[in-house]
Design goal:
The protein is an alpha+beta fold. It folds into two domains: about 80 residues, K homology (KH) domain (GMP Synthetase, Chain A, domain 3), CATH 3.30.300.20; about 35 residues. About 50% of the residues lie in helices and about 20% in strands. It has three helices and three strands; from the N terminus they run H-E-E-H-E-H. The protein has a three-stranded mixed sheet, covered by helices on one side. Helix 2 links the parallel strand 2 and strand 3. The protein is elongated, with a radius of gyration of 22 Å. The termini are far apart.
Length: about 120
């Protein structure tokens, strides 16, 4: 599903002006067991998904669902829910926290080396 949705975006099959000039990436698709619901995690290149792009994707969801059902030979078209992907933001935050902690530990280790021994 991820590949088919990304391909439709890449080929410009969704002709919504709100998506023009935007590099929307489909990061992940989580599908229910019965394949009737799919949560689609999307992001724009290097930034969170804008409200305009999210609205355009939501408007295109029924067409995309039909496209998926035909391409995958599904009995039912899945209900697509587009969600802004925050994985990169969370990973960046964790990296910054780890860097701060390494710097704090490094400066404390440097202080211990310079203390006079009695």
């Amino acid at each position: 599903m991820r590949h088919l949705i990304a391909e439709a975006l890449l080929r410009g099959e969704i002709r919504d002006p709100r998506l023009q000039g935007r590099s929307v990436t489909i990061a992940e698709v989580r599908v229910s067991r019965d394949l009737r619901h799919a949560r689609v995690f999307a992001t724009e290149l290097g930034k969170p998904l804008s409200a305009e792009a999210a609205a355009a994707l939501a408007r295109a969801a029924p067409w995309l669902a039909g496209h998926l059902a035909r391409a995958m030979h599904l009995k039912f078209a899945p209900k697509l829910e587009f969600v802004a992907d925050t994985l990169f933001e969370r990973a960046d935050r964790v990296e910054r926290l780890l860097a701060d902690e390494r710097a704090r530990l490094g400066s404390r280790a440097g202080e211990e080396e310079h203390e006079p021994q009695s």
